[in-house]
């Protein structure tokens, strides 16, 4: 009974899990596909109440509802090439109308819509937005009342719906251009346009782990409000915290490292104003381009009957969701013959014929547009059909096979691409007419157990035939001889290994060694041919090594031969290369006059040509004729350049000596190169110095217009062909450009903005002494004039019959603003939208108090009125220079209502 209960429980659990993870499909045309990076994504059909969990690239059907869990990411690719990014905790419904344009119902959460050649419509309770072609829009719906739309690129049209408005009729429609923000409900004082909330930014730079991020925002705060942009790597801003003052700006580009980046933008005077700040998070993903591994560049494949199956292998990155493998017959990858999207980093392709092919891999990210993604390098490979395939290359055994102590003997060879089986034959003669062993295997090796019984001491020959499934011979190796030795005899070369490179000067110091248990005489032999048809050295010895060998530069072969019990054995032949010195490196950044200019606070870079084979360099600097007096040396430089500080070295001629070296490795001795001695002449030169305004100076906007400052610069050298240039950010034309100016130049009146200035100059000899860097300064916006303070009447004053009995005017007075030249006055009723009942312009008279005696009492009636006063500053030419903040005062006219006059009956008038 217990077992039955457990079985029932497990069956129920299995069915529950199966139902939980089921993916449904329909027998109708899909409108797109959905992909996701992590966490849970669910989908519900229009006519179903059941949610399913789609797999990667699942179809999306008309009317589907898609929702994401917390921290989930999803992306819908519509058939019209439009893309919908779905944020976490978001639910949308997608329809495609008869005109094939998509319509999204955003119920909650956040989406980003990237359109191509068709529009997308987003409906959300009280608003509807049409995203135009080739546009990017971010929509964030916090609740039923609050909706925020940000147009990052392109254009959108938004319509708000009220109880008596018809959206379909196009009423109350507003067009949003690039960088526009639309808000309904509670409006934020600061809105970040980019980066959007939780956006993933790809860092495809393989050289550094950071990327430039453009912060762009919109704010309703005053222009002179001091704003702070703060970034960090954790949400409490305690790690990698950086602060930037962005007052007067609406965008800034900041280098950000890989990983999560938290940001907040807020006014510096934040006390009691938390609602004015904006904050968010984005992630910089390391996404280096794929590294192609197999087939390697310019690799070759051969076949005889059946084209080979080519395995493609690359190294991707963790940020990629999948990869697109493309194979084309041209290096420009136009009209590829094979394309396939895969989730792995390898794929075998067998549909390629002979010819030269080109391939590349493009990663696919859920967080980026296809146009923003970088593909890998393009590699080529060749498939060649041959009448005969390359013969199997023998690997083991070598010339002597040890079969003592009942050892096994393994024969192995390199695989042949097209061969399905191998036939191995061993014979006691070279023409293979007396086979001792003739067997077939599917592997590229064969092991003989107790080989001494099958192959007693003697000389044998073996060959391998590659065959197809039916046994037809595709290729055959030449017979290869080997000797079996059923005794414990050892004769094995040790050093140098095969292919070892020896510097020519170290040849005599190199000891050739081998290992043997023989006591008989051995011959150490060196030849310039691999078959030893021309032996140049034959040294007899009873030792296990020789040295003092002198060989010219070139390729040589060496071996050791011995005779044991009338059984001649020898070591395998090994190649050794006697190498000449490396070539001289050449300085590449030195002019014909060999002159090097030393600039203040700047390092001088020496660059030289790379020496093939060298892995490090030595550099020495000395005075001519004083070889032992080295002023500077660095004996280990792995790059082909170095930066040196010459600030303390005297002007004059010097010798720079550069030499390439290579450290000893398993395949080479240490090596050296020829030294290159180059004469140079050092001269200190100071660049032009920019004095005022200093870099990043902030200049008062009023002063910049009324009392422009001066540009001051200096030079210790006599400048020739100097040019002073002042430019303004965002303006194509220079603000100021002077040739051969004085050291003090008066600036013209400047408007608010960011400016850059520099001086380019050269000496009489034509040497560049331009300023080391461009200086920047910011002219701040002209602040508004202060609001006036009313002196009389008091706020909410009531002017009744008693007042007008004593006064025939209303005296309005306020404090004077020091810079104001005129005051604009308006009086209007409580309905401000109506035309003012009175308007006037009052000039400043130099007094501390401004008085307006209002005599036009007939313009007023019983009720509430408002008076507004705005101070303004005009220049002598009448141009408005500085506007002011409006001050408003409310007052009330309270006169008794007039009664209707009643008269007595007049009776019949005279004459009637």
UniProtKB/TrEMBL annotation:
InterPro entries: FecR, Ig-like_fold
Top-rank lineage group of the source organism: Bacteria
Domain FecR protein, chain residue ranges per copy: 64-155
Organism of provenance: Treponema pedis str. T A4
Record protein name field: FecR protein domain-containing protein
A Pfam family hit: FecR
